[in-house]
Design goal:
Blueprint: H1 2-31, E1 36-51, E2 57-71, H2 100-129, E3 131-134, E4 140-141, H3 146-150, E5 157-161, E6 164-165, H4 169-177, E7 184-190, E8 193-199, E9 202-207, E10 213-218, E11 221-222, E12 226-229, H5 233-260, H6 271-283, H7 286-304, H8 312-325, H9 331-359, H10 362-369
Helix pairs in contact: 1-2, 1-6, 1-7, 2-5, 2-7, 2-8, 5-7, 6-7
């Protein structure tokens, strides 16, 4: 059934990620002495909840796409100041009366919790099962490919690509896939000598193991030598941090490609697309679903750091301006910022949702009805 195979895995993953994100805000806020009125997983009408001894209302709400922590002094879930509220300006538990550094720490704590969760997941997986990899030795060069034109040969060991060290074929694949229509400098070892080559990966559309299409750069080499790294807890933690960093920088690179027009915004995924990925991963077992959860946790943390008002990054942007000016922005300016941020978030959600609908063939179906 669709609900069991796709919706439930998606909601399970999303609920955990949102809870961890908001718990990051909550814990640092409590540490800073901020009064916390509500902790909600989801938006809208409360389904059920309870009050703790500190007066915080813990609740599960009807709309499951997100969540929030409402601090004392907030006017709503976006943590905008309640200038007309009942909390006095001198209340030390009012979030907006806290020093700038404490407010920034509370805001950063949410995305930081998502990155830490991803590191924890990867570290556990690498400790329990090790880390598979493919050596960076070229086994085959595809005829008439970018690699063939650059002069790569079977037996070459790729040492670096685009100035970045290559420790495995997975590293090379990641670097190449993000280089769309751009020359890629390579350093390879051949017969004991290091030589430099330039390749221009060709842009192709591929499908992942779940059948989802995306445009990537393709070099045209294959590697066959497989390896397996057995890692202790320390080594697993180091590799987990590295993996999280690689995913973060790769995601930022892909976003920049969308902004500059090198990559299509059609690759954006909305709730339906993420539900599809979660459900497909669940079909491969719990380990696959947990792995996807780590990737989504990084995405959630990263998106929230974008400098868009309403998101955590937007608050940090306002705090940066406050640090430079020596005082907060005016109420009217902040209100305009939040309205623009709301419009940007809604716009991105509409684009991503349209992509989901188009991917499922609904757009073509509707066109067929009127043609």
């Amino acid at each position: 059934m669709f609900v069991i195979d796709y919706i439930l895995p998606f909601l399970a993953v999303l609920t955990v990620l949102v809870f961890i994100h908001e718990m990051g805000h909550y814990l640092v806020a409590r540490w800073c002495g901020v009064g916390i009125e509500a902790f909600s997983v989801g938006f809208g009408r409360e389904i059920f909840g309870w009050n703790d001894k500190h007066g915080t209302r813990w609740k599960l709400s009807l709309i499951p796409f997100g969540g929030y922590v409402k601090f004392r002094g907030d006017s709503g879930a976006a943590s905008t100041p309640d200038h007309a509220g009942n909390v006095g300006d001198d209340d030390p538990s009012n979030f907006h009366n806290k020093p700038l550094a404490q407010r920034a720490a509370v805001v950063v704590a949410g995305p930081a919790a998502n990155f830490l969760l991803a590191i924890f997941i990867f570290a556990c997986m690498f400790t329990l099962w090790g880390q598979p990899f493919t050596t960076a030795m070229v086994s085959e060069v595809v005829p008439d490919s970018a690699a063939a034109e650059a002069g790569l040969q079977p037996g070459d060991v790729i040492l670096s690509a685009d100035g970045e060290n290559v420790a495995s074929f997975e590293d090379l694949r990641r670097i190449v896939s993000l280089n769309l229509d751009r020359p890629l400098p390579l350093v390879v070892e051949r017969d004991g000598n290091q030589i430099s080559l330039d390749a221009s990966p060709r842009v192709v559309e591929i499908k992942d193991q779940f059948g989802n299409p995306s445009k990537v750069g393709m070099l045209g080499v294959r590697a066959m030598e497989r390896g397996w790294r057995e890692l202790g807890p320390g080594g697993a933690l180091v590799e987990a941090v590295r993996q999280t960093w690689v995913i973060t920088t790769s995601t930022l690179s892909a976003v920049w490609d969308m902004i500059t027009g090198h990559r299509s915004v059609e690759e954006l995924r909305g709730p339906a697309g993420i539900a599809e990925i979660s459900g497909q991963a669940a079909q491969f077992g719990l380990a696959s679903l947990i792995n996807i959860a780590a990737f989504l946790s990084i995405s959630l943390g990263l998106i929230n750091l974008f400098p868009i008002p309403m998101l955590d990054g937007g608050h940090l942007l306002f705090y940066a301006v406050e640090a430079v000016r020596g005082r907060p922005l005016g109420e009217a300016t902040q209100e305009i910022g939040y309205r623009l941020g709301f419009a940007m978030v809604i716009g991105l959600m509409l684009v991503a949702t349209f992509n989901d609908i188009d991917r499922f063939g609904v757009v073509d179906f509707m066109k067929g009805l009127f043609s």
